[in-house]
Amino acid sequence: MVVREITYAEAIREALREEMLRDERVFLLGEDIGLIGGVFKVTQGLYEEFGPERVRDTPISEEAIIGAAIGAAIAGMRPVAEIMYMDFLMCGADELINHLPKIRFMTGGKLKVPAVIRTQCAFYRYAAAQHSQCFPAFLMNTPGFYIEVPSTPYDAKGLLKSAIRDENPDIFIESAALYRVRGPVPTEEYLIPLGVADVKKEGKDVTVFAFSIMVHVALSAAKKLEVEGISVEVIDPRTLNPFDKKTLIESVKKTGRLVIIEPDHKTAGVGAEVAAIAVEEAYEYLKAPVIRLAAEDMPAPFSPKAYNAFLPNEEKLINTIKSLVKRSK
Amino acid sequence: MDVKSLSKELLLDMYYKMVLIRRFEEKLVELYRIGKIPGIAHGYIGEEAVAVGVCSALRKDDYILSTHRGHGHSLAKGVDPKYLMAELMARKTGVCKGIGGSMHSTEPEVGVIFSSAIVAGSIPIAVGVALAFKMRREDRVVVSFFGDGATNRGTFHEALNLASLWKLPVVFVCENNFYAISTHISKSISAKEIVDRAIAYNMPGKVVDGNDVLAVYEVALEAVERARRGGGPTFIEARTYRWLDHGMYYLGKYRPDEEVLAWKQRCPIKLFKERLLREGVVTEQELEMVDVRVLQEIEEAVKFAEESEETDLEFAKQFVYVR
Questions:
Q1: Cβ–Cβ of B132/A76 closer than 8 Å?
Q2: Local confidence band at A1 (pLDDT 50, 70, 90 cut-offs)
Q3: In degrees rounded to 5, what are phi and psi of residue A135?
Q4: Residue among B155, B143, B169, B3 at smallest CA distance from B72
Q5: Domain range holding A28?
Q6: In chain A, what's the furthest Cα-to-Cα distance?
Q7: A220 and A180 in a common domain
Q8: Which of A70, A246, B101, B223 is the most exposed place for a label (fewest CB within 10 A)?
Q9: Is the pTM above the cut of 0.95?
Q10: pLDDT 10s digits, B192-203
Q11: A158 DSSP β-pair partners
């Protein structure tokens, strides 16, 4: 198998391109995705290759973008809509929440909605409170669509291809902070099944649960702790729905300690759910309390100095793990 | 429209569908009052000519998208009343297997692709369906039904803009019954006429008497043919009136008695019946046969629904995801 290093953005572009070549029902729509290849250049080149019919620039109309994706999907197409920032999902919230995840159910299974809504959380762009949000827990709390949160180029490509082929609606959450991250991706086709977590690093002393950008923070911390004799296992769920409880529980049973690092708000965040699962299903194996490191419970501040402290970071994670291991020896 | 230019079969079918909707909705009210229909429901009595006039202009493989007040649209497009009645009574045999209820009727085989209970919610979805038709070079048309209140939602404006921009084969049918629950259009719509909103989206707008089924049919036919030819969307404002309250409960007095009475005197079924007889295209006996057939169908629908199994949680769970 030939493997080369490509960026996260390139991996997503390859997934889109391959699926468009494979299935003529697949098409893209969104703001500025065509002529200029997207404000983050993820779709660059696709407009030239597939033309304006299949790479559709839209007005700034999130309700219409998501609604049109739903309509095309129930009529047999495979739309992939792009919503520029996760914050803007809320501009299309009626179609996103009241329609997308409920149509199959409400029609007693008569309709399928195989639409993918791609969006991204803009971490570390210092773009203030309306261009920095990350609210996957809100989506997790809405049954009816799948949620992908890829952290690496390999995962982004394999998950996106699966999401496009999947018969359910998908919210595919990328991050602008990851678009330039490079990683190994095979040239041969591969798919990653939805609902299967990935053990990004094996370890025996403590389980760190991380997704999206926080996987990189966790891996870096794990490497440093290894030198100090603490063996960290890093679990990346890859999809928040379906949620792979099994991999999480097995890891917690093995290490007896769980630290969650997440880029969303702490209160009622993804970590709250993960902690509850661990306590419900592996209580007797836990040697220490479950700890959550999350974004502060406040809107994202603009000031870089403030923003950098707003998100959890490697230093906090290392200190948390050290003290947790120490107190539960 | 010249009645004599239309086939007797079509005229009798229009009459049948209007009476079917009327009797279905009367039965709904009756069953609701004795607690046999749970949840919330909205009656279409008084507005029958809009659904029937529009749907008569469509082919079976054309799609409609409907609203919370959608029984009329579904029946006019050809949904079997027994499956719709079973849905209202939350049975596994219902059009949505007892999971959607009154407001989400869906039967793609006859062209009812979806009904949304969020005001204006199905309009952008209709645009997406039309986009699929256009991208596949199919000569099918989509009709999006909504009420006067829906034209105040942003979703409506985003959807009309996109449909016009992309010249999609969709017909927007606004059923203007003058009241969004209790709020009269004069208190909610800044445009002089609702139809004027079409001007902003560069599409033809037509006002039609929504109680005259043939007038609706004529306007719809033109819009549908235009869309089918690739001419893009049309906006139709059909002025009509709902005889019942917004839902199944009395919400207070917000309409003058004289206004309600005047509209009831212009009952769409009565108007159509009188015209058919006056022009001598059908006999009284032929219409009576339709009336009897409808009554039988409604009774059968209720019987079918009552004999069907109620939808339970485990049954419902299987429809959340495609696994």
A1: yes
A2: confident
A3: -130, 55
A4: B143
A5: 3-186
A6: 62
A7: no
A8: A246
A9: yes
A10: 999 999 999 999
A11: none
